[in-house]
Description:
Strand content: under 5%
Helix content: over 70%
Amino acid sequence: MNHPSEIVWGQLVRAADSASNNLIEAGNGSTDADFLNKMRLALREAKESKACLQNISMAPLAHAARVIEFNLEDEADQLCAVFSTIITNMERRLANEKSRRRTR
């Protein structure tokens, strides 16, 4: 593997691992704010993973054919969409709860 490939693949591994770890931490969040913070971090890292996969495919760097074959960029995009939906729904729920408390 050449040096540029090693750098991008290394960054991909770090970003994907961080997304996974933050997702686990979100599940163990002590408050709603903690949950949202960890989910936002997971989303950010998932987006970075997608960018790394795009770089691998477009350059093309080592193993680009496998990234394309397994449609990994689309998988990362789907994870971003799921994380975004979770965040949006949670923010909406919290806003509704806050609004209901005000009207009481």
